[in-house]
Specification:
The complex is a heterodimer.
Chain A: H1 33-49
Chain B: H1 12-23, H2 26-36, H3 45-49, H4 57-75, E1 85-87, E2 91-99, E3 102-109, E4 112-113, E5 119-122, E6 125-146, E7 149-160, E8 164-168, E9 172-191, E10 198-202, E11 208-212, H5 216-230, H6 237-244, H7 250-263, H8 265-276, H9 284-297, H10 300-306
Antiparallel strand pairs in B: 1-2, 2-3, 3-9, 4-9, 5-10, 6-7, 6-8, 6-9, 10-11
Helix pairs in contact in B: 1-4, 5-7, 6-7, 6-8, 7-8, 8-9
Chain lengths: 51, 308
């Protein structure tokens, strides 16, 4: 007897969705969001450099 | 070693290296590493001196930096400053030193009236700030729970050269509301070990309007789980199942669990059962519901995972 293949789409998400790091940028705030944006930019840059 | 009589190295990189050698001592860098590892700031003499309102250490560090950058730009006028930075019409930010999750940066905020905030971002990040020049006003936000609902206390503070502020984690935040004279601030931050998300909270109602991962590692795990799942990399299932049981945020662990279940139902269901049985686990309730759902659809999962 084989174990089932469970379709990913049939597996529920959590009730509360959490965005990716850096996606919480509130234009009214100078703090927090801007730093996250810098880190995301650096992360993407580092990824591109590694290829 | 510099040969005797040879000209000293010139250019931006040499100027910046000289600044780092002179002003960012090995002790300071080691203390930043200790701060990242969780040591309290008062236990780190050189680092805490930068955030002492009456000490000149921060002025000394930054005047040395400005001198070095000016010398570098004089030698190489077209050269970009080789420090990680961000610039828009309101804010300039330079990252000076980084170790683990600890970050020492300097930021300049342009003069403007921003107005009272309607929402605040609360992140599990410890932040220390030292205003070196300029003046303005910030609102300090303190978040508490009252019968399940969040209550946000607001305190207006005038800030000027010498003001030192600290925000400890996801219960406190500060928002700049007015800048009368451009603010120059030295800032030290470290991520707290808890993997709580960063949350945007409505200050009036206390309602969470939006939330996002507060660190890159959580998002990296979610992306890896999504990519490996779509690539049908069954060999990644044990690693994803282990990640689902690991120390990352509940949201990232849940995505790893979903991918593990889809790639290899044995490894995934074993992790699911462990999570469902953990009374302290924040994912226990949704895991129990999913476990019941899967067992109802595929009863053989119980037998096969039981006889491993």
């Amino acid at each position: 007897m084989e174990l089932p293949r469970i379709p990913l789409s049939s597996l529920p998400e959590l009730d509360t969705l959490t965005g990716a790091f850096g996606s919480l940028v509130n234009p009214a705030q100078l703090k927090g969001g801007e730093d996250a944006l810098v880190v995301v930019m650096v992360f993407v840059y580092d990824l591109l450099q590694s290829f | 070693m510099q040969p005797s009589g040879a000209a000293a190295p010139r250019g931006m990189s040499a100027a910046l290296k000289a600044w780092c050698d002179t002003y960012c001592s090995i002790t300071l860098q080691a203390e930043l590493r200790s701060f990242s590892d969780g040591q309290p700031l008062p236990d780190l003499p050189q680092l805490s001196a930068l955030f002492c309102p009456h000490a000149s250490a921060a002025d000394h560090l930054l005047s040395g930096l400005v001198t070095a950058l000016a010398a570098g730009l004089r030698d190489e006028p077209d050269r970009e400053v080789p420090l990680r930075h961000f610039l828009n019409d309101q804010l300039a930010l330079l990252i000076l030193l980084r170790s683990g999750s600890a970050l020492l940066s300097v930021q300049a905020v342009q003069r403007r009236a921003i107005g009272l905030p309607v929402a605040g971002v609360f992140s599990p990040v410890e932040t220390h700030e030292h205003v070196l020049a300029g003046c303005g006003q910030v609102i300090r936000l303190d978040r508490s729970e009252d019968g399940g609902a969040a209550v946000i206390g607001q305190t207006a503070l005038d800030v000027y050269g010498g003001t030192v502020m600290a925000c400890m984690g996801s219960r406190q935040a500060t928002v700049i509301t007015r800048v009368d004279q451009p603010l120059l601030m030295l800032r030290l931050q470290r991520a707290q070990p808890e993997c709580e998300p960063a949350q945007l909270v409505d200050l009036h109602s206390g309602r969470v309007m939006q939330q996002a991962a507060s660190n890159l590692a959580d998002t990296r795990l979610e992306l890896a789980a999504a990519v490996l799942g779509q690539m049908e990399r069954r060999d990644a299932a044990p690693g994803l199942a282990a990640a689902a049981l690991g120390l990352r945020s509940p949201a990232a662990r849940w995505q790893a669990l979903r991918a593990a279940l889809a790639l290899d139902s044995r490894a995934g269901f074993s992790a699911l059962s462990a999570i469902a049985g953990g009374s302290e686990d924040p994912l226990a309730v949704p895991a129990q519901a999913l476990q019941a759902q899967l067992l109802s659809a595929w009863p053989q999962l119980r037998e096969r995972t039981a006889c491993r």
